[in-house]
Write a structure and sequence with these properties.
TIM Barrel, binds zinc ion, single chain
Length: 250
């Protein structure tokens, strides 16, 4: 059985002191495949080393919508394109729109999002999408391109999920569905087509346990929860999600 973390920042500085231990726990939990999201030079360098060691890891490079302020220049996009080519990255992401924490950079976010979708389209790569309080604009932008990809950390409605699915996207759920009182993700998971479902931690972020640094091994708890919701045993669920994961990169 192979478990997959469809979105984690394993190259993040937050893992610089204990990345080896995190990898060991990941192995012990049977998490053998992952998408390593790398936004920024440090994370990219670490991500490249990780992929050399682990054939099940995919590399996703991007400029994150929350990282725009320090530089709005087109040079950043050129650098990203070079980094993607040099590392032979598998995906562009996470990219998208965040009107929750950075509403003042809306115009620039839209420009950088469009440019990164264009890049993915040129390079024939799938995309990993970050969308917060921006679903209408996200959907409008995605409609302009014919791309495969993943809507990361989904917490919206079933109706919105259906629209993304119609466009060809996979929907990935994080640990927020384990927070007490969060019923919506479970409802969407229960009714959506199983062949578009994925699971992720967003480690080191979004831990359901206060004070705990989230790590890819923790994805096992989310698999448990989803296997209950879908009434599937773990092995069957793991096999289905592995097929979904491979389909994104095919
Ligand atoms: Zn993330």
């Amino acid at each position: 059985m192979v478990l997959i973390d469809a979105h984690c920042h394993l190259g993040s500085r937050q893992f610089d002191g204990n990345r080896e231990d995190v990898l060991l726990r990941m192995k012990a939990a049977q998490v053998r495949k992952a998408i390593i999201i790398c936004c920024g030079e440090h994370d990219r360098q670490e991500g490249i080393k990780l992929k050399e060691r682990e054939p099940g890891f995919k590399l996703a490079f991007s400029i994150h919508p929350q990282d725009l302020e320090d530089d709005f220049s087109a040079k950043r996009l050129e650098k990203l394109r070079e980094a993607v080519a040099d590392a032979n990255a598998d995906m562009i992401g996470e990219t998208g729109l965040d009107y929750y924490s950075h509403p003042h950079t809306k115009q620039e976010q839209l420009e950088f999002f469009r440019a990164q979708l264009e890049m993915a389209s040129d390079l024939g790569l799938p995309v990993d999408i970050h969308s917060r309080k921006a679903s209408a604009d996200t959907l409008e932008m995605l409609k302009r391109f014919r791309l495969k990809g993943i809507i990361h950390s989904y917490s919206g409605s079933s109706e919105m999920a259906d629209l993304y699915i119609k466009l060809g996207y996979h929907i990935s759920f994080g640990a927020s569905m384990l927070f007490p009182g969060s019923k919506k993700p479970a409802q969407v998971i229960a009714h959506m087509p199983i062949d578009r479902l994925l699971i992720e931690t967003d480690a080191p972020y979004q831990s359901p346990v206060k004070g705990h640094v989230h790590e890819p091994a923790d994805v096992a708890a989310i698999y448990q929860a989803v296997s209950g919701i879908r009434n599937m045993d773990m092995r069957e669920l793991a096999d289905r999600l592995e097929e979904n994961f491979e389909a994104v990169f095919r």
